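Consider the tokenized backbone below.
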């Protein structure tokens, strides 16, 4: 039996329907310790946001205790209302904060980061989507930390590719844009996004010579066959890195978990993704797009 057949059988098993407690492979380290507090203090004193805290990432204990975090720029209010995401939704009242790139660079330096990951909320109320702040943050980081490498995890800018050009021109070492799920589930999971538009963004960035990365969550009701189709799509474009992790419901108001995907299935996804030509597939229950990001350079 091939790996693909095995995973397809496992993925369609009724035994995997979700109820009650998380399985033991999703237990995580609790936030604690001196380094964790230092990271927390630096973020607070620089008036910054992190996706770790805003999106209630399960890896916060591990990442922050190891001295790393993912900065979330452009405020803490997102113009979209994705079904999986815990970040506040609304219309941001502020314009762009041009001091934010300075604070990101200072905080990253204090944290002694050599590889920095920056993401943002969606700022669909702006034609430029806030892209100039991504570019300025990359520039300031390079000024402040010689030799730093930067990964940006960007929104789709509603397909306004002039906005995307700000980011491309800043030449981040890794350009990440998450597909989040399989196309059939976009209406529930990412109602304001379009699968084809996200693929186009990745293709543009790849064709401009950037190292590209994308990620999906599983456990939202997708089938393994649909995951393989996403892999085919991104392999065809030439995406270099793919992350696959378990969806976890952040609050009762968010989409239900449909399945706790077994670690063996994640291992099989990695094997199949890489066999399809994706250079590096990071796949595991607790994998998030910025988890162990320094390995994706
Ligand atoms: S995986 Fe990413 S978002 Fe989660 S805590 Fe680590 S750095 Fe933050």
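A designed sequence for it:
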């Amino acid at each position: 039996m091939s790996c693909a057949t095995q995973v397809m059988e496992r993925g369609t098993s009724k035994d995997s329907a979700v109820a009650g407690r998380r399985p033991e492979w999703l237990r995580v380290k609790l936030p604690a310790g001196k380094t964790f507090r230092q990271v927390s203090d630096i973020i607070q004193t620089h008036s910054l946001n992190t996706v770790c805290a805003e999106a209630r990432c399960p890896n916060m204990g591990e990442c922050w205790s190891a001295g790393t975090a993912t900065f979330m720029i452009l405020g803490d209010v997102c113009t979209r209302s994705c079904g999986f995401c815990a970040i506040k939704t609304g219309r941001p009242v502020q314009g762009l904060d041009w001091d934010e790139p300075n604070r990101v660079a200072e905080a990253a330096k204090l944290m002694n980061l050599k590889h920095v990951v920056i993401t943002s909320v969606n700022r669909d109320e702006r034609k430029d989507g806030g892209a100039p702040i991504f570019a300025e943050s990359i520039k300031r980081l390079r000024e402040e930390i010689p030799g730093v490498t930067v990964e940006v995890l960007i929104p789709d800018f509603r397909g306004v590719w002039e906005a995307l050009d700000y980011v491309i021109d800043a030449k981040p070492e890794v350009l990440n844009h998450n597909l989040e799920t399989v196309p059939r589930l976009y209406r529930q999971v990412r109602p304001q996004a379009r699968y084809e538009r996200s693929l186009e963004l990745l293709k543009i960035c790849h064709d401009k010579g950037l190292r590209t990365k994308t990620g999906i969550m599983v456990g939202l009701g997708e089938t393994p066959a649909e995951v393989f189709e996403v892999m085919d799509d991104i392999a065809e474009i030439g995406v270099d890195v793919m992350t696959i992790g378990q969806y976890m419901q952040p609050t009762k108001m968010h989409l239900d978990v449909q399945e706790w995907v077994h670690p063996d299935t994640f291992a099989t996804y990695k094997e199949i993704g890489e066999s399809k030509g994706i250079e590096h597939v990071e796949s595991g229950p607790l994998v998030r797009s910025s988890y162990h990001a320094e390995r994706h350079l």
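The pocket of iron/sulfur cluster is lined by residues 51-52, 57, 59-60, 63, 68-70, 288, 290-291 (CB under 6 Å).
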